[in-house]
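Researcher: Quick one. two chains, 544 residues in total.
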Amino acid sequence: MLYSILIYGAEALVDSLSDDEEEAILDRHRALQAQLTETGKLGPFARLMPTTAAVTIRAETGEPVVLDGPFAETKEQLLGLYLVDCASLEDAVEVAKQLPVDVGALEIRPVHFYGPGVLPQTPFEAAPYP
Amino acid sequence: MSGRPRLDAILAAARPQVVAALTRRFRDLDRAEEGYQTACLRALASWPEKGRPRDPVAWLILVGRNAVIDELRRESRHAPLEAELTEAPLADAEAAAIARLEAEDYRDDILRLLFICCRPELPRSDQLALALKVVAGLSVQEIARAFLVRPKAMEQRLTRAKRKAAAAGISFDTPSVAERAQRLAAVSTLLYLMFNEGYSSAGNGAHLRAALCEDAIRLQRLLLRLFPGQSEVMGLLALCLFQHARARARLDTEGRIVLLEDQDRGLWDRYLIAEGRVLIEKALLKGRPGPYQIQAAIAGVHCAAAAPEATDWVEIERLYRALEQAQPSPVVTLNRAVAVAQLDGPAAALALIEPLAGALEGYLYFHGARAAWLEELGRVPEAAEAYGRALALCTTPAETAHLKARLAALKEES
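Model:
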């Protein structure tokens, strides 16, 4: 079964991390990615840009309107996500526990349907040139 | 390292909101800072053992507030207590107090705290120092290093600045829409100058001052999170992200300036550029372009070019024209002339800036640009003279070294 692991944390805290601290957090991610790759469990994963780069579309009065900012104002924001193939919820919890959780919280949400899409199977980094 | 953020990072992230709330409560920057400090000490003592509270900001505000009230009580033991301060300690009412403190006001609290720092009574450099101390939470030593002064002198400046800011009298009521707009504009200017203070440095101490850029960006992100619909704040952040993206390519290993056209674009930070692009696109969609958005769009055009030859100078010239409309200034016209030089040649650019000679007499880049165009046209003696005038206006070793090299090359050619 596929599970998504949604990573939440306060962006103010992410902004306050030193380079070393950020690198240490990324190391934990890389370690998990390597391990899940080896065991064949790793699906797509992503780190999101800050919510200041987000827009939200709502249609409260009929016509859809584009609004600035994230969908909800919360103390903690969605920072990134993983899709992992796990035998059970317990297994998914064990996987998630390997990620740093101190910056906020991790939500495990089982996946109802997953389409692999057509994007190339190569990592995508935000690129400046069109 | 375990990948656990230090408690320090959590406390630092909470600082603007905690100090801002305590400033509103006690209307005194020193008290607010003291309250925050005390709350941090208590957090360091109790969180590792008892666990972190679910809402660290609310916890710090509450503990800081109680600490200041205790302190005021001690100080006024012999004086009659103010009615408000005779309230019982809030042990039981904690939950309600947290809810109240967390209410609507935090946006205006943080904006007000930043606005207090940019009182017009204070010289610019003191405004920056005060914001770095009170809002960003830099130590006096760090700020002194960034401004290349002794810690003792910086301490005195900050004390004086705080006194002046406190005396200036700022409304602690919820601001009106017009007041909020005015505060946002003043604070945006402050955060732009803070970025420039770090950005325009080179040579000695450049790496120390570059930290100012990161602090400015951090505060701009904070401001935009508080006011997500402000297109000029988006523009400001985008502008600074584009400029900061080029930081690693701007100086060579010896601290010398590398001009935009000579920079190794592989050293540009692709991620910051991408974020800047999204922000400026988002801002311009709102259809209310302002000076920061236009400047960001210009920086974005430069960042979008994989090589100097690929720069869209037509678009840059058009954007500078828009900026001349929005914010007319001889410096903007000088910058448009740079685009004109690319499109129509150095003679056209020189003709455009000739009327600016008086206004930009003391402006380094006017003489620098003029010298380069005269040189291109083969007017060597005039070019040498212009380089000389630019050299006389240099303020950093990197600028001096750069212009001396240009002048030497000119003399060699002729």
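Chain B touches chain A through 39 residues (CB under 8 Å).
Researcher: Thanks, that's what I needed.
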